[in-house]
Amino acid sequence: EKALAESHSVSRGPIREAFRRLEQAGLVEIIVNRGVFVRQLNPEDAADLCDIKASLSALAGRVLANGINAAQLRTLKGMVARMEELAAAGDVEAYYPLNVDFHTNMLEFTGNARLIEMCASVDKELYLFKRKSMDAGAGMDRSVAEHRVIIEALENHDEKAASEIMWQHAITGKQRLLGVIPDSGREGRSV
Length: 191
Known about the structure:
By secondary structure, the protein is mainly alpha-helical. It contains 8 helices and 2 strands, in the order H-H-E-E-H-H-H-H-H-H.
């Protein structure tokens, strides 16, 4: 705290407040009389968060299939087409942020503010590992293939199919993610 305050020529108050906010977001741990440390996500916590994300994703799929409009579908299709190009080129650096935008758009298109908020909270904790999981094996190719199936279910306004594929997409992401966390041999529980 003191070193950061001095290096940025500010008082310790704003630094302390920033640390509190990072702690609330689940990104750091504050240990009294020791300092602030970047939070290490263990495989069990990651698996539990992924299971929560899968359930929230299934809900988002069901809600979105029921209310998606033609303009929203065009937006998502365009994003998937671009992701296909990036996956073919092996460009993880460009693919990952577009993938995040794709999922953010789907959530926003549900119009459910609480669902968006809950997903954002889970995603914050998983952020550091999600990018790494795209590097694992055929992560981008599989992700694109799943996105195509999601689009098809949404286009057909099939709530059940959209819910199931969104849940499965999150579980596949969980398996990729657990594959990149050190000491992660856990398959994880399913919801």
